[in-house]
Amino acid sequence: AQSVTQLGSHVSVSEGALVLLRCNYSSSVPPYLFWYVQYPNQGLQLLLKYTSAATLVKGINGFEAEFKKSETSFHLTKPSAHMSDAAEYFCAVTLFSGGYNKLIFGAGTRLAVHP
Amino acid sequence: SQTIHQWPATLVQPVGSPLSLECTVEGTSNPNLYWYRQAAGRGLQLLFYSVGIGQISSEVPQNLSASRPQDRQFILSSKKLLLSDSGFYLCAWSPGRYSPLHFGNGTRLTVT
Fold first, then answer.
1. Does A41 contact B108 at a Cβ distance shorter than 8 Å?
2. How far is it, in rounded angstroms, from Cα B25 to Cα A103?
3. E strand or H helix at B77, and its extent?
4. Which residues of chain A have a CB within 8 Å of the CB of B34?
5. What is the average pLDDT value for chain A, to the nearest integer?
6. Do A32 and B32 touch (CB under 8 A)?
7. A51 touches chain B (CB under 8 A)
8. I want to staple B78 with a disulfide (CB 3.0 to 4.6 A). Which of A96, B1, B19, B58 is the partner?
C-alpha cells in the first residue's frame, strides 16, 4: 500500500539558509509524488509534481525536489529561504484505483523562517 | 482557466445541528471531486470522492455524507453535528487519473 513519511514535524531555518524538507514514500507501483504548501487558514497549493519523467523536478517559488528510487525519497529543497516560505508543507503519493486517483498525504512539516 | 469555490469560509455550529458545505468547480467538465478533512494533529484525511454525478465513495464511516447533484458541484452534509466534526474541510478536484489535485480555500468548522 502507498504511504508517505515526512521526517520532522517542525523545521526552523534562518533567512537565506538552505531549506531541506524530507519525504520518504512507500509504493508497490511506480509512484506519482507531489509537494503542496499550505499557508494559515488556506487551502493547499501545488508546489511541484513527479510523474516518472525527470528525477529532478522544479516547482514554484524556487523549490525543487529530487526523486531517488534507491532511497524511496522525494526531499524538497530551496537554496535560500525567504520569510514568505514560512508555511506547512505536505508530501503526497498517488494511489490509483479504477478511473480516479487519491492522494495519500504525509503528516506535514511546519517550516519556520527566522531573521 | 479552472477555479474551485468553497463556502462558507468559516462556520460555527452547535452540536446536533445540520451541516451543508458546498463546493463548485468552474472551467472544466466531469472532474474527479474530493472532500478532505484536516483536524488538529491528524493531518489530511480523505472523506469522500466522486468520479461522476451521483457516484460517491466513502473512505471512512462517520457522521457525514456527500452528494454530487451536478457535474461540478459537491456537497458535504450532516444531519446532526458532533464535537468531533470540528476541523478544516477542503474540497479538491482533479481533471484525471494522472493529474494532481487542486484545492479550494477550505471551510473552518467549529462545533460548539
1. yes
2. 19
3. strand B73-78
4. 102
5. 92
6. no
7. yes
8. B19
- The more confident residue out of B44 and B62 is B44
Q: Which of A45, A96, A102 sits opposite B49 (nearest CB)?
A: A102
Per-residue pLDDT of chain A (115 residues; tens, 9 = 90+): 788 999 999 999 999 999 999 999 998 777 899 999 999 888 999 999 998 778 899 999 999 999 999 999 999 999 999 999 999 999 999 887 766 778 899 999 999 999 9
* d(C-alpha A42, C-alpha A97), whole Å: 28
Per-residue cell: A73: 525519497
H or E element, residue B67: strand B65-70
In A, minimum Cα distance to B40 occurs at A107
